[in-house]
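Onboarding guide, step 5: your first structure request.
Type a short instruction followed by the sequence, for example:

Predict the 3D structure of this protein.
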Amino acid sequence: MKKIIKETNNSAVVGIVTAMLLIGLIVTVISIIQLVYVPIIMEQREAEHMDRVAEQFGFITSVIDNQAADERNNIPIASFLTLGSKELPFLVSSKAYGTLEVLENSCTINIQNDSINNIYPIGTIKYSSSNAYYLDQSYTYEAGAMIVSQFSGNKTLVPPNFIVDYNKISNTINISFDVVNISSVGKKTIASGSGICGIQTEFHNISTNITFTDVDNMTITTSLSNAWFVFINQSLMRAGLDLTQFNLNKIGQDVMLDFEDPLKLNINFKIIKIQAQIGPGWIE
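The system replies with structure tokens like these:
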């Protein structure tokens, strides 16, 4: 009888130890997945989401450019953008969030002619990410350009309508600059979250269409000054100018351009107003 009881107790102990080992193994496997593989998977998902945002924001850019070129009123067009990405099911992870907004007067263009400053405030559309695992990025539609920003800087992905023509015979620089100015409709100017957000845009009017002659200098003031500095410098070099013929400086948020004598600068300047509204419905 004692022998039977002893064997039974030993079997129970072995069963408990086996169960504890299995539980420990399961906990270890889950911990490894949670600590090692979940961040890798989520980082990849957020990277893919950033690629998708780049495509969607590029589509918004093309829609606005087409509306600016077409110049037809009362035709609002809706575009959509995925603000964030979802977390993994059954495991501990964080969502990625994003913000889409219309920013009034976030950029200014200053053209100085005959000691008169002509200052033009420009509105923009901006998407900003709030990622948990991947590098945060933002995409901005500013003055006709699509610009991507990271913590290390910013660069132009889609250039604006900025054309430089250099006439060597007359020593004249003619710049054609079509600026798209984004203005909001109503109070629907911002949306945040992780779902899909719509934005509607519509051509409104051409608020400015003027040619400035004998321009002293042009200054673009923006938080994306690095992208504009690089783009304008490349545009001037492609037109056949060299560094001895112009002064292009970036000081803080200011990008300043002027030319050395005897070069003359003329700017054909146009501002195309596009109205934008975030969310469903269109307010007239």
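Each response can be followed by summary notes, for example: Residues 2-70 form the longest helix (69 residues).
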